[in-house]
Design a protein that fits this description.
Chain B: It holds the Pfam family Translin. The structure holds two protein chains of two kinds. Chain A is built from eleven helices and two strands; from the N terminus they run H-H-H-H-H-H-E-H-E-H-H-H-H. A two-stranded antiparallel ribbon of chain A has the order 1-2. In chain A, helix 3 (32-75) runs parallel beside helix 5 (117-139), helix 8 (184-207) runs parallel beside helix 10 (237-264) and helix 9 (212-231) packs antiparallel against helix 10 (237-264). Chain A has helices at residues 2-17, 19-27, 32-75, 83-107, 117-139, 145-150, 159-164, 184-207, 212-231, 237-264, 269-288, and strands at residues 153-155, 177-179. By secondary structure, chain B is mainly alpha-helical. Chain B has helices spanning 3-43, 54-76, 88-110, 116-123, 137-160, 166-182, 190-196, 198-214, 217-220. The chains are: A mainly alpha, B mainly alpha. At the A-B interface, helix 1, helix 2, helix 3, helix 8 and helix 9 of A face helix 1, helix 5 and helix 6 of B.
Amino acid sequence: MSGKEGAGGFKKRKHDNFPHGHRREEKDNINPSTVFMSFKAFQLELDTRHDKYERLVKLSRDITIESKRTIFLLHRITSAPNGDEILMESEAKLDTVRQKIKQVAQELMGDDMYQFHRAISPGLQEYVEAVSFQYFIKTRTLVSIEEINKQLIFEAEDKEEETKVPASDCLNSQSHIWCLKVTPVDYLLGVADLTGELMRMCISSVGNGDIDTPFELSQFLRQIYDGFSYIGNTGPYEVSKKLYTLKQSLAKVENACYTLKVRGSEIPKHMLADVFSSKTEIIEQEDGLP
Amino acid sequence: MSVSEMFITLQGVLTADQDIREEIRKVVQTMEQTAREILTVLQGVHQGSGFQDIPKKCQKAREHFGTVRAQLASLKMKFPADQYYRFHEHWRFVLQRLVFLATFVVYLETETLVTREAVTEILGIEAEREKGFHLDIEDYLSGVLTLASELSRLAVNSVTAGDYSRPLRISAFINELDSGFRLLNLKNDSLRKRYDGLKYDVKKIEEVVYDLSIRGLNKEATDGAGGEK
């Protein structure tokens, strides 16, 4: 605010310093107040837009952080004795994330979502990653984009929330319902990140002596990889870029399965765990490299 | 739904998206062509002999804007009306160019800054986002900044052509623009970069005005527009 006033003050000073220029403008039929007034209006318009953008970036960051925490929580499921409890907790966490997304939807009310897409896209991708990870743990299948979007339709719960919505944006007749759609590209990028989490889960589950999960995971990852290969480079650049990382993750999982099969015949189960826990460290070190 | 089915659906969506972009690109190319034609017409004003036919050149440029309107009308049919910003990048550049040309024509005609609303009328598009294909404020401002650098060039060339009063009027106009832009709190984006160039245009014109003043040439300007010193 103070910056705005400062700019205004400067403008006035400038005119005081150049009285000649001012007089000349009037003679030349350039009405200073018209240009001044329209730029005043532009100032307001640009500030409103930038403020909105910043608010969305902030929300997006919150969504990212909470989603990451959910993912970490879900990783604990491989070693935890009571998986249901963790799933419940993750559900609660995802609900708070959805509340944030609701705020995003409210912010975007009456706007073109794509105008601010760059601000919210990272958060949405992370959210897709968390949701699809939880969904996979629950059902061992891939969540569809329709399923995700179904959860992102919000209804007004109380009146307090309605007042938060800027009045000017309330052009929509169904102003009590907000919805946000994850774009196909955000969905794809989220799913591509999911594969990295699944790779981690695979390695750590072997470390815990779980022999079946790695095979299930490699099966599932292969399906996703096939899907991405089918899309190939028809999608935007970011999608093609993820394909490489995806291939690496898949290779790690496939190699783990190979080792399991080969060494599984000669080492007793409890010792296999040792073989893999040392292997996990190596893989994680590799991940740390730039 | 199986994983492969999901990916087939998604691939269909992506292909459809690319088809739309391809269509848009085609129209944008024709718009670029028209913009170049208008620019060629208007470049004539920089030549000494061109000063007399400014109205004629503007007239001709305005005829070309008829073509632009038709092209923009076909462009807006290429994508869903509520997804302007999804494809914005494709026409952003050419639209800024056209805004510049429109502001240039109006400046040559009336020596005033054309409002955003008037530009949208010339281009046959909407002023407000809610109504459909509109002119983004940043694109309008970018076009205006291009006008400033074109005018600084015109100031130099009008001195060469012996017109000593025009640079003084241009100087007043650009100063007005400059103080207008100073009001804006720009982010560190492309518009900000364009704005940073404005000070060089201001400087260039101030040099021209200085050269005229120090030689007393501005007093020779007979139409009384020059009031400097």
